[in-house]
């Protein structure tokens, strides 16, 4: 076992998913997730992709995101919308509530801490 893990999804079959139906606001967003690493204590790293649509999000975990491709709009309840695109990085903190709208299929690298 190595202590250096490359974030590479070439040999991983993605998990398929979607937002819970009661959270969908528009479209038919579909997810693919390649969880490339996980560690004791609830830390996960990998790649996530979503097709166009809009849904409600609620974060109880901390997540670092780096957008690899696509365009989305994230809006915090009571806040301004944030347009994100390839090259952008950000953190969603526990307690974040709002919406995620995928304008163009969006792919991100993530690190999640529960």
TrEMBL record:
It comes from the Bacteria. InterPro entries: RmlC-like_jellyroll, RmlC_Cupin_sf, UGlyAH_Cupin_dom. This is Cupin superfamily protein. It comes from Phyllobacterium ifriqiyense. It holds the Pfam family Cupin_3. Residues 39-110 form the (S)-ureidoglycine aminohydrolase cupin domain.
């Amino acid at each position: 076992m190595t202590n250096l893990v490359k974030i590479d999804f070439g040999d991983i079959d993605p998990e398929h998913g979607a937002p819970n139906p009661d959270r969908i606001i528009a479209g038919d967003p579909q997810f693919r997730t390649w969880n490339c690493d996980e560690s004791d204590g609830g830390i996960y790293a990998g790649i996530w992709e979503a097709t166009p649509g809009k849904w409600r999000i609620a974060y109880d975990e901390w997540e670092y995101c780096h957008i690899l491709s696509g365009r989305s709009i994230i809006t915090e309840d009571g806040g301004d919308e944030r347009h994100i695109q390839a090259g952008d990085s950000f953190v969603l903190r526990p307690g974040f509530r709002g919406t995620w709208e995928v304008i163009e299929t969006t792919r991100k690298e993530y690190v999640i801490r529960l």
